[in-house]
Amino acid sequence: MKWLILFAMVAITGCGLTVQQKADSTAIANATTESGEFSSESLTQLRREIIDLQVAYYKINPNAKCLDTDVGTCAIPLDQGVTTEDLAPRVAISDALAAYGNAIDSLINADHKEDIAEAANDLKDSLSSASEKSDELSLSEDQLDAISALIDVAGRWNLERQRKKALIEISESYATVIDQVTPMLIQDLSIKWNSPCRPAFRDGRADNAPTTGADKEDGILDVYCSTAYNLKRNAKVLIDGRNSTDLPHAIRVDAVDAYVMAHNAQVNGFIISNTGVKLLSKLKDSAEDLGRVAKDKNYKSKDIKELGKDLKSLSSSLKVLITKE
């Protein structure tokens, strides 16, 4: 009888996720969390730095004027059109991505019902906020119900089997969300073929620079790069100009500081675009893999391995970003 009970327990546990399924699902979860957190932090930081670049520009350019507004007042365009209203839906979407990653990780690895329930509630709240603020995101009632069901998973008998069942159920909504929201983030963090953040265009067109490329609409990073280039160009006029030796010391200091700030922004912009877009694009390509991993213990995916590599590449790249002292 004892052996019969033990055999039954092993058979039931075998219906859960294998070690490899857990590892692959966790890799997807980690990449999703990191993509969301990276996008949220990067986009908000880019807006702050656009304002800093514009402030520096107005300090060194005596010809820079304020612009007339619809209400008859004159204002300095510090944010270059990247308003808080523009940023809100993007940040909400990014936060929802991070919440999805955390929820999946908790579902797979957490031992306590409270941890899974907290992650599930955070995911529901984040998705609700994102869907209200952005037209890019919409989920069906069935998909939302699958997320709500996560709260009850840990309270049921044989948690391991429930993990697998719940993972299969939420994989559809996960793939839908990734497919809907990553294009918007990729658009904002990718740069044009002739962007001044690219090494070949940082100081005008280099001899080996391409002459044509694919067109794209301006994203937030494109605005950031063009703002940096404009500041750098004006700083160089003061530093290398015909009357540069007659510049008051304070103005020359401002010009040099502005040049360094702009150049650093160009370097950072290129790093952010390269690594961020690569991870987000790979995440979009592998969106369907979560469901396949959960359903088939023998499923293998090159995209999941690449996700891990891109995640490490992003982490390493962020360490070399130039920051203010």
Automatic annotation (TrEMBL):
Domain of life of the native organism: Bacteria
PROSITE patterns: PROKAR_LIPOPROTEIN (PS51257)
Stated name of the protein: Lipoprotein
Native source organism of the sequence: Alcanivorax jadensis T9
Lineage: Bacteria, Pseudomonadati, Pseudomonadota, Gammaproteobacteria, Oceanospirillales
